Amino acid sequence: MSSHEQSYRAGETMGRTQEKTDRMMGNIGEKAQQAKEKTKGTAQAAKDKAQENTAAANEKASEMGQYTKESAQSGKDNTGGFLQQTGEKVKGMAQSATEAVKQTFGMAQHDEDEDPYVTHPPRNY
Questions:
Q1: pTM for the model
Q2: Of 52, 55, 102, 105, which is the most buried if we count CB atoms within 10 A?
Q3: DSSP characters for the chain?
Q4: Region annotation Disordered: residue ranges (predicted)?
């Protein structure tokens, strides 16, 4: 074989090797691009899901806050009415006790029509 023929075959081999290398590099590049796009899609889906969860949690917290506010207001309203009634009852009992003491010591003012020994129950307003 001549030197010229050896060079020719070496060039052919080198060309085929280069072509195979280029094809392999192209395949690797395509696979890398596909992996990149898949990762990007997965990351976007995770981000969207996190935003949905955050929005749902914020809405739930707002609802719970409103419920707590309404419950507190209802409790406040009920407590005010209860304290008003209790105050009136205590006032009535104190007046009855005062009248009983006055009657015991003979200091009570008597109406002609009224029996001085009858005690009246406290009024409930």
A1: 0.40
A2: 102
A3: --HHHHHHHHHHHHHHHHHHHHHHHHHHHHHHHHHHHHHHHHHHHHHHHHHHHHHHHHHHHHHHHHHHHHHHHHHHHHHHHHHHHHHHHHHHHHHHHHHHHHHHTT-----SSS-TTPPPPPP--
A4: 1-125
Residue 114 has pLDDT above 60, yes or no: no
Task: Looking at mean pLDDT, say which of 92-96, 110-114, 116-120 comes out highest.
Answer: 92-96
Rounded CA gap, 123 and 10, in Å?
121
**Assigned token pair, 90:** 């205590």
Angle made by CA atoms 83, 84, 86, in degrees to the nearest 5: 60
**What is the domain partition of the chain in residue ranges?**
9-71
Full 3-state SS string of 65-91? HHHHHHHHHHHHHHHHHHHHHHHHHHH
User: Residue 3 pLDDT > 70, yes or no?
Assistant: yes
Q: How far apart are alpha carbons 39 and 5 in whole angstroms?
A: 51
